Amino acid sequence: MKKQPTIIAFDADDTLWHNEPYFDEAQERFCELFQDFASKQEILGLILNHQVKNLPLYGFGIKAFTLSMIDSALELTNHSISGQNIAKVIQIGRDLLQKPVELLPEVEGVLRQLYGKYKLIMATKGDLKDQHRKLHDSGIGHYFHHIEVMSDKQEIDYQKMLGRLDCKAEDLLMIGNSLKSDVLPILNIGGHAVHIPYHTTWEYEKIDFEINHPNFKAFSSLQEVLTLL
User: Fold this and answer.
1) Closest Cα to residue 30, out of 78, 65, 79?
2) How far apart are the first and last CA of the chain?
3) pTM score
4) DSSP string of 175-220?
5) Residue 229: per-residue pLDDT
6) Which tens digits make up the pLDDT trace of 32-72?
7) Pick from 99, 180, 168: which is nearest to 137 by CA?
8) Which are the contacts of 129, defined by CB distance < 8 A and separation ≥ 6?
9) Is the pLDDT assigned to residue 202 strictly greater than 70?
């Protein structure tokens, strides 16, 4: 890295703590509930379609996901679903909101080594209340100078964040598990980005091309980021 960053931003879900497996588990429960109406593949495709369609209105997060599951249930049953089964779908979402926060390996050790040397921030998207709950339960909130919960992670969202931080894009290093949300927008505005893949990725976050950029690095573990700094 030619220029050392002054600010290091971390994505939260599936970068600092486990998240996507909980959603996979929730979808499995939903598929079992409606297995008489369609195949698992069809149901998963339906949920994804509703999520993508609803993003402009609902945004990201568990509450938005729950509403998309309800939309899917209504479509699957041709609006004949019982109140009891609607309640079961809502319970799937409620259970998601109460999942324990389990830090990924190396997270706290890396934060401890960077703390005091750089301005550390958490830059994530999703439901504001839920993300603050997870940060509180994680026990690592004291490492962060700033918490940014964005409605989305487009270039303009990052630019607004940089404005609030009074920081230039070239001084920011973003670390995350999503190439689409954590890497590409940052590179496009002149920042630096590191990709740490997670073993499972939401379909919406996948891209079908390789990234070749001088400000981009891909590592297999968070610990490797320290070799850059």
Assistant:
1) 65
2) 8
3) 0.92
4) EES-IIIIIHHHHHTT-EEEE---S---GGG--SS----TTEEE-S
5) 86
6) 999 999 999 999 999 999 999 999 999 999 999 999 999 99
7) 99
8) none
9) yes
**Strand (E) or helix (H) holding 79:** none
The tokens 């949300």 sit on which residue? 181
Label residues 189-199 b or e (16+ Cβ within 10 Å = b). Answer: bebbbbbbebe
Starting at the earlier edge strand, list the strands of the sheet with 216-218. Answer: 146-150, 119-125, 7-10, 172-176, 192-195, 216-218
The answer for residues whose C-beta is within 8 angstroms of residue 95's C-beta and 6 or more apart is 26
Q: In the beta sheet, which residues pair with residue 193? A: 174, 216
The answer to whether the CB of 69 falls within 8 A of the CB of 89 is yes
Chain-centre distance of CA 59, in angstroms? 12
- 87 burial type by CB count under 10 A (0-12 exposed, 13-18 middle, 19+ buried): exposed
Question: 210: which 2 tokens?
Answer: 């390789």
DSSP code for 15: T
Are 61 and 45 within 8 A, CB to CB? no
The encoded tokens of residue 121 equal 């921030």
Q: How far apart are CA 15 and CA 143, in angstroms?
A: 15
CA distance 66 to 10: 26
Distance CA 188, CA 174 (A): 12
User: For 151, how many CA atoms within 13 A lie in the half-sphere containing its CB?
Assistant: 7
| pLDDT range class, residue 177, cuts 50, 70, 90 | very high
Nearest-angstrom CA–CA distance, 119 and 146: 8
